[in-house]
Amino acid sequence: MKTKALYVLMAILAAGVLAFCLMRNHRMPSRGDALLDKMPELGWVRSELKLTDEQFKKVAQLHVDYRPECVEMCHRISQAHEQIEELAKTGRGMTPELDAALREHAAIHLECQQTMLGHIYRTAALMDPRQSERYLEKVLPYALDFTHSETGNLHER
Q: Would residue 67 count as lying in a domain?
């Protein structure tokens, strides 16, 4: 029973991460000259935390540098999820292949979460202590819980 619950939890986590990545990419316009126009997801960081222009420039550059890594991780998670679904649909029990796919899926989630946390902490380090504390308060729930069910939409806060 614990194994089944773990598989369900992993599937839910995968769906949450995939939805997050798809919505994040969907919200990014492809045009615009201003850095902020290209990254509306950073608007709340600048306004709510009252970043200086220099701080925002550094935060935005970190974000730009991290984006391809995030997109790649989302792609890998999506592929792993598809593999699990295919194996689960075509099989009639727990097979070594399905077990291996689930383990790979979990490993990718772990790597993604570690990478995301590293990015978050690097971003927070660019801020003063008060800004950093507020930033971490807002962002860590998303990195620690991929379902985002209790914290609402980051862009609406």
A: yes
